[in-house]
Amino acid sequence: MRNKHTVQIAFAGVSAGITLLFIWLANVVSVMSLTFYALSAVALMLPLCKKYYVAAVFAYIAAGLLSFFIVGNIFKVLPFVIFIGPFVVTSITMSLKNVKPYMEIPVKILFINAVLAVLYFALGVVLFSVDSYLYNLLNIKNLHYAWIAVIATMVLLFADAIMLRIFAVMQKTMDRVIKN
Fold it and tell me: Residue 90 belongs to what domain range?
């Protein structure tokens, strides 16, 4: 019989390793950074498929800390550390715990806008470091913060809905492949 804690540690380690790989790739292949950040979120969902909440938190912490050392540029890692990691763990945990939508959606909106405000006002960046061509094309620096917040909130809530659908498929597949 397998030890449950050993399985949880293994899930956390595999999840942290794959997440770290995608964070590193997001910084090496900057053209596809949003794709690799999304894949890092998917990798962080692995322990949550088996409802290993603590393992998911440990995977997030390990991937976040190791990415600071491996990537080297703190600002390139901030999207994962400040937003993606905590948002994935919180959103899926609320979904698995059957939190009512009238509680879940306002919490997500508050979290998204708190992160956006910290990144925008404290660090002077939008959620992700957009390449200079797109930054100039969209004229983001002249956009009022309220517009950025409204548009980003809608886009990120839509991305969250897609993420929850992906998680549902992952969870069914993991239940079929790995028995308890």
Answer: 4-177
pLDDT in tens, 96-145: 898 898 999 999 999 998 888 887 777 666 555 544 555 555 555 556 77
For the chain, the domain total comes to 1
- 130 CB-side CA count, 13 A: 14
pTM, two decimals, is 0.81
Report d(CA 164, CA 112) in Å as an integer.
Answer: 16
